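Please discuss these two lines.
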Amino acid sequence: MQHAVGSPLPPPHRPGHGAAGPWPAPQQAQQHPGAPGFTGAPPPQGPPQAAQAPHPQAPPPRDTTGHVQLPPGAPVAVPSPPPAQAPADPAATTLAVLLIGPAGAGKTSVAKYWADRRRVPTAHISLDDVREWVRSGFADPQTGWNDNSEAQYRLARRTCGFAARNFLANGISCVLDDAVFPDRPVVGLGGWKRHVGPGLLPVVLLPGLEIVLERNAQRSGNRRLSDEEVAAIHGRMAGWYGSGLPIIDNSQLDVAGTAQVLDEVLARAIASPPQW
């Protein structure tokens, strides 16, 4: 008999249950002296049977679903400074790095290059990539800033933070990139600190305006902004000067050169974590 999807299955068949349902099996009429059809003495009773030994406990079922239990993604703590006789080697240390900068600063290119060449497992988590997971209803930055854009940016940052904590909990470093504004500390840098942890190491990439405009012109799709927008963003990013965060002016550096300077900056940050 077929059962509708979602309906409870019938109970398994047990002795004494008929095929059509849990009806008791017919029992033989008990015979005793004086009863009709009684022909003799009751059948002899055999010796009492010994109690049946209990079966050994069956081993727990083995999980065959492919599920792997992962450690919880706790906030990443501030890295401990290495001993004085052992200088920090950021290329061999599990780190959480946030690259900050305007559009066209080279954040994504540097992050990918840096992550590809480390001696320890490293993941690159791009905010723009995660933000573009939204297809229908995507808040295109070229159409202007609104509440929908704000919500999608915040959601993408929180998603990237969760991903970073999961990677770090399993021994995989992370480098994230985002255009965080210094004049919005609660939403920007403060949000990243809440999502990832106080051990996140922020570094600012801030080349000159002419370089940023030139690199932005080489972009395509919704990641290419107008010159006016790029200039406005670049001007707001200048507020990072005097913030105490390390700043790399990569105007005259290629991607490889910028990644090398990034390693030097991170070595100093591990030895003396910035206050932010």
Notes: Helices lie at 107-116, 127-131, 147-169, 189-196, 209-217, 227-237, 255-271. The first helix runs from residue 107 to 116.
